Amino acid sequence: MAVCFTSYNLLDFTGSDDRTAFLRQALAMAQHDVLAVQKIVDDTAAGAGRLLRQLADSLGLLCTVDARGTTAIASGQHRYHVGLLWRPGITSVPGTWRAFQAGDSHHAPARLQLDAGAREPVTFASYHADPFRPARRFDEARRVVAALTRPPGPAVIGGDFNRVSADRTAPGDYYDHDPYADQEWYADLLYQVEWNAHPDAPHRADRSPAEVLRRGGLLDAAAALDCPWHPTTGHWPVGDPFGPRRIDMIRTTQHLLPALAGYRVQRTHAALNGSDHLPVSIDLEPAMISSRSVDSTPRSRHPPSGNTARRSTAQAPTRTSRAR
Question: Higher-confidence residue: 210 or 303?
Answer without folding.
Answer: 210
